[in-house]
């Protein structure tokens, strides 16, 4: 145990208990660094600076730090996969904050003002949705999984609208082209198209018994590793659960688990049919 860690705990509680608008990002990051908790995460947050996703990750990391007493051997003190952390927040596109636009006193066309009203509204909705998703329980039951998926899809849709609106605003800033109300309406209707793979049922009847059993074993192994990643954040089982926090990486893993469970059921059904 170190004095810095205990001091960081007290400072973290004070920081988290403050109003959201008073939580200074640099101060919170300094507290995390002082605690010694997940140093690579602290380094990642320092490199990326204050953004929507880094604020949420900082808040989550400080809360997680408060849940454990200092023990360097505790798996929760281990560094996370920084590349994975970078990947899981790509969906929070670093779009401009609408509040920065209000600082300009130059009058703008009515169309541009309307565009920015929509943009600010979607920005606020996305921020609220992101907080809702971050506060979901770290469990894998059907209700939470469905809610997590719903919020993730909502965020993707809001981001698509914001990107479309900002493209019109950027065009106006660059060459003075005023967006039409029809263009703004079209941007507000922008959605994310989910590409569905052209899945064809696998013909398991064409496989011999040896191949079927080998694939069953392989599928079981992959399924166990994915489930362990969700429950322990490692591919092997640990003494204590350490659920993967709410993030896009978790959503992807949950989909992979669902697919592997369905495939395992199909393999076992075919093996049982042949007996």
What is the structure about, briefly put?
With 275 residues, the chain is mainly α. The protein contains eleven helices and no strands. α3 (39-48) runs antiparallel to α4 and α4 (52-66) runs parallel beside α7 (110-134).
User: Major beta sheet, specifics?
Assistant: none
Radius of gyration: 23 Å
Tally of alpha and pi helices: 11
Q: Structural class, judged by helices and strands?
A: mainly alpha
Reconstruct the topology from this structure.
Blueprint: H1 3-17, H2 25-35, H3 39-48, H4 52-66, H5 82-88, H6 98-101, H7 110-134, H8 142-175, H9 181-188, H10 209-232, H11 248-274
Helix pairs in contact: 1-2, 1-4, 2-3, 2-4, 3-4, 4-7, 7-8, 8-9, 10-11
Question: Can you walk me through this structure?
Answer:
This protein is an all-alpha fold. The protein has helices at residues 3-17, 25-35, 39-48, 52-66, 82-88, 98-101, 110-134, 142-175, 181-188, 209-232, 248-274. Helix content is 65%, strand content 0%. It has 3 domains: 3-88, no CATH class; 98-188; 204-274, no CATH class. The N and C termini lie far apart (60 Å).
């Amino acid at each position: 145990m170190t004095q810095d860690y205990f001091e960081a705990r007290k400072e973290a509680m004070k920081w988290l208990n403050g109003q959201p608008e008073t939580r200074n990002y640099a101060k919170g990051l300094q507290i995390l660094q002082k605690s010694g908790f997940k140093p690579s995460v602290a380094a990642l947050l320092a490199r990326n600076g204050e953004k929507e996703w880094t604020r949420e990750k900082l808040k989550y990391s400080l809360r997680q730090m408060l849940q454990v007493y200092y023990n360097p051997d505790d798996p929760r003190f281990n560094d996370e996969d920084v590349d994975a952390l970078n990947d899981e927040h790509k969906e929070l596109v670093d779009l401009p904050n609408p509040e920065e636009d209000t600082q300009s006193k130059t009058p703008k066309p009515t169309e541009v003002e309307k565009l920015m009203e929509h943009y600010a509204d979607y920005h606020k909705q996305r921020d609220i949705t992101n907080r809702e998703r971050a506060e979901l329980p770290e469990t894998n039951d059907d209700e939470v999984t469905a809610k997590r998926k719903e919020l993730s899809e909502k965020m993707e849709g809001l981001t698509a609208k914001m990107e479309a609106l900002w493209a019109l605003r950027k065009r106006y800033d660059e060459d003075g082209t005023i967006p039409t109300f029809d263009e703004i309406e079209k941007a507000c209707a922008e959605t994310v198209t989910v590409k569905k793979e052209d899945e064809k049922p696998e013909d398991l009847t064409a496989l011999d018994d040896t191949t079927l059993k080998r694939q069953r074993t392989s599928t079981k192994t992959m399924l166990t590793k994915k489930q362990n990643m969700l429950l322990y954040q490692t591919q092997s089982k640990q003494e204590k659960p350490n659920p993967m926090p709410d993030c896009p990486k978790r959503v992807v893993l949950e989909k992979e688990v669902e697919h592997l469970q369905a495939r395992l059921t199909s393999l076992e059904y075919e093996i049982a049919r042949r007996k």
